[in-house]
Each structure stands twice: as C-alpha cells, then as structure tokens.
Amino acid sequence: MSLSKYHYIVVEGPIGVGKTSLARRLAARLQSNLVLEHPEQNPFLPRFYQDRARFALPTQLFFLFQRIAQLRDLAQLDLFSRVTVCDFLLEKDPLFAHLTLEGDELHLYQQIFEALKPQAPRPDLVIYLQAQPETLHQRVRRRGVEFERPITEEYLALLADSYNRFFYHFTGVPVLIVNSERLDFVKEDRDLDLLIERVGAMRGNREFFNWGD
Questions:
Q1: Which of 15, 26, 119, 213 is most deeply buried (CB count within 10 A of its CB)?
Q2: How many C-beta atoms surround the C-beta of residue 2 within 10 A?
Q3: What are 125-158's pLDDT values in tens digits?
Q4: Domain boundaries, given as residue ranges, for the chain
Q5: Nearest residue to 143 via CA among 177, 100, 186, 190
Q6: CA distance 182 to 212
Q7: Of 131, 37, 32, 52, nearest in space to 99 by CA
C-alpha cells in the first residue's frame, strides 16, 4: 500500500501510549527521516514530576524551545523528496500548559507559543494513538524510567482526557485515531502492516482504526 501522498507524518498520543516506538518502526519501514523529541534532555522534567507547581513553567518552555528548534531544522529539508516521521505535534503543546500552568505563567507561555508557532511546518497526517489510563500507567511503569516513577494513573487519566478533547476539535489535517490497546507495533509486524494499510486507504479527514474493524 503506497503512502506517497504523505510527506510529513506525525505520531501523537499521551505518555506511555507508544508514539515514539511507532514512529521509529514507521520511519524504518518507510526509510524516512525521523524526528523525535528528547525528554531526557530536559533538565527540569525530573523536578517537575516531584514538584509540578514550581517547575511546570521552565519544563514547558524548555520543551517548546526544543521542539521549535527541531521543526525549524525540519523546515529547511525538502519534505517532498523524502518522507519525514515525527513523534510530536507542535499544536498540541499548549495542552500540557493548560494542565500545569495558570494565571500569569499560563499567559506568558501563551504569548511565547503564539510568537513561535508560525515557524513550524504543518503535517500531512497525524496518527493519534489512544489507550486507557490504566494501560498507560502499566506501560510507563514497565519501561522503568526513573524520573517517571511519580507519574500517577490519575495524572495520566487527565492527560488522556485532554488529548481526546484536543483531537476532537483538531481540524485542517487528516487524523487517524488508533485504539492501541490490543496492538503491538514494535513486536508484531502484522499490526504495523495493518496500520500502514489503513493509512494508505484513508479517504476522509478523520478516520478510526480499532482492532477487529
């Protein structure tokens, strides 16, 4: 199944859903450029999970500047000569800000985001991965990243709900919404094949992929 109509594909979803793993597999299969966010480079992130109120703003701004720098480099590439797969969508960035910031800090973040946003290229397709909060929590615990240990299922439930609300209103780019509960894109080539087939067959701007459809 050809995906030639897509030059810039984004994989998105909440913490623990498997977006980076899928982005890696998809990029390898398509022999494409791969752009990944690097949470391990954010010096504020471990402290954010210990004290969210104190470290939310620097954590958010570090990620914003990091993502803008990556997308600025991406904009210099010829996106029509080779497919690019990315594991973050810049337009989603305020989602975390609204969960963790308020008052003057939220206003400051919004001003900076609006000033920087025009620098980002727009994807041709977003693959949005969903999973239940308990599944997300199990996956986060399983991967054993030390600074993620304080993440609770309650926080992941708020995050998953925010993602659902965001993508419910997100328009302008085709979105494939994927229920990843019973799919393993890392270990099962068949699951990856099914996803690529569904992407290639997309005709509308919003479609759903559930196992067994």
A1: 26
A2: 7
A3: 999 999 999 999 999 999 888 888 889 999 999 9
A4: 8-209
A5: 186
A6: 10
A7: 52
